[in-house]
Amino acid sequence: QVHLVESGGGLVQTGGSLRISCVASARSFSNYAMGWFRQAPDKEREFVAAISQIGLRSSYADSVKGRFTISRDIAKNTAYLQMNSLQPEDTAVYYCAAKLVANSWLLFTTAPDYDYWGQGTQVTVSS
Question: What average pLDDT does the segment 75-99 reach?
Answer without folding.
Answer: 97
